[in-house]
Amino acid sequence: MRRSIRESLEDVSLLMEQLEAKLTELTLKEKVDVGARVRAIAKHCESIDESIKTALKARKDQGTVLGEVFKAIISWVPTTRFQQKEFEKADPKTYSKFLKSADQQRITFEPR
Questions:
Q1: For residue range 96-105, what is the model confidence (pLDDT) as tens digits?
Q2: Neighbours of 44 (CB within 10 A)
């Protein structure tokens, strides 16, 4: 990882830990403002996370992708999805007919 990115991520992580520790000292008004700003940060974090996971999911296989410090573990897990449109047309007794089982790719990160 580029040094500047690594250092920025370390700084952001430390700042968020410090902010979390100070939450109990804030007034409700301050918490409202912090909450609004944190939500914007969270959206950026979600976008970055989704972009990285999309790149990893493009591999289409299970396995491990090594980073410099962490590794990503890509696995398929069984998932059952409820088919709501079909259910809306049917009565409750036919509910089980519209369950569809499928495998879903899951990515987790952990130190290597």
A1: 777 789 999 9
A2: 9
pLDDT in tens, 21-80: 999 999 998 998 898 889 889 999 999 999 999 999 998 888 999 999 999 999 989 999
Q: Which two tokens stand for residue 28?
A: 């409700």
- Dump the DSSP string for 38-68: HHHHHHHHHHHHHHHHHHHHTT-S-EEEE-S
88: Cβ contacts below 8 Å, ≥ 6 apart: none
Q: What pTM does this model have?
A: 0.68
CA angle, residues 9, 14, 20, in degrees to nearest 5: 125
Tokens of 99: 């369950």
Tokens of 46: 């979600």
Q: Is there a contact between 86 and 53 (Cβ–Cβ < 8 Å)?
A: no
Give the Cα separation of 27 and 34 in Å (integer).
10
Distance CA 77, CA 90 (A): 29
User: For 6, which DSSP code?
Assistant: H
